[in-house]
Amino acid sequence: MVALALPSLLLAAGFAVDVGFWYRERARLQLAADAAAMGAARLLGDSAATLSDYQAVAKSEALGATGGQLIGAVNWPATVATSSDETSVTVTLTSQADRYFSRLVPGLAPVLHAVATATAIEDDNACLLALNPSATKALLVTGGGTVNATNCGVFSNSSSASGALYVSGSGKVLGKTVGTSGGVTNSQGTISPTPVSFAAPQSDPYAELGAPPTGTCLTPPACNNSYSFGGQSCIYSPGTYCTTIAVLNNEKATFQPGIYNIQNGNLIFDGGSTISGSGVAFYLGGSHPGYVGWQNNAKVALSAPTSGPYAGIVLYKDRSASGTNSGLNAYGGGNCNGIVPPSGITDQIAGSASGTLNGAVYMPSGNLWVDNAGSIGPPSGGGFSLIASTMTICGSANVTTTATAPSGGSTGAQVVLTQ
Hints:
By secondary structure, the chain is mostly beta strands. It has helices at residues 2-41, 51-66, and strands at residues 73-74, 79-82, 88-96, 111-122, 126-130, 139-141, 146-156, 165-168, 172-180, 184-187, 190-192, 233-236, 239-241, 245-247, 252-255, 258-263, 267-269, 274-277, 280-285, 292-294, 299-303, 313-317, 347-349, 354-370, 375-377, 384-393, 398-400, 413-417. It has two domains: 2-119, no CATH class; 126-417, no CATH class. It is 13% helix and 37% strand. α1 packs across α2 (51-66). The relative contact order is 0.13.
């Protein structure tokens, strides 16, 4: 009886061995598909790339990742499909599994499948970037707030799994690409396109930027920080100011070209004031860097220098700001679906204030709060990028950023697996 049963026992044992090989081949085939999709995604954005180019790269990467071994008899060329917006590519590999002992049984020829999708997102080229590496809701858009970055990227570097990017209460985030190094929470909001989660963080494009030299403290114009209601006109000269620059109460201020080094003071535009300046950059520094407060129908139109170390930067808050001088300023609205600014000083654009900025706002230690119908964006034909530690955009506020702003960094792309 043992002799009679032995062939069946051996066949069953052999079949079990083959099944083990098939599982291993399936895992290796998935590895090959992942590599193929990652490689093919490098062609995204290349208008000259054809289907055969994608297929050739996919095959090369798949065989390179697996050495061509233990993936069965793959059907080449691979099936390759790009998304309609050409931001992702999907590769499907089909393989006839190898057979050893199971060859003795006709018809046992399993076909293995593996599918992988890779997405290319702009690397170091997000025109709206939250730098904080761990904050929950590092980029929060809620209460009717809108981020409009349809020709460039939106990214949060936070690794928080509970919502590095958090959109709720009819908030909108619209970008050419949207991504985060952590998780995404979308509660009754709009995010377009579909965000990429758990991607590599983007680098700080101005990480090497230093502080401007500090000179002799200048005396501000007589109308600085004036509480009169005469609608005075002021002209500011570039240099070091060891006090707050405040344009209030329907005043009109013109800033002459150059660098405005504000030491231990704030930058305040308030009360229906009108502010203009071409070729200007504001720096908030010192031992206790101050905050930015633009609100109550202030109208701001500023453009950055076009040459020198601060070319393309209209506002720079020193990265050393910490403690109460780096939080949000409880100065103004805070009308964000019941969300209130944290305690301490903040940087705020609120109360129907509007900013037309041609250049970059760089606040690596700043927590920017835009609310109460405040708006900020580029002039017609200009460019604007926004980089801050954290950002909250709410209360019908609108932030518009564009890829044409000089924002440093590379213009390449990073590729991440999304399936």
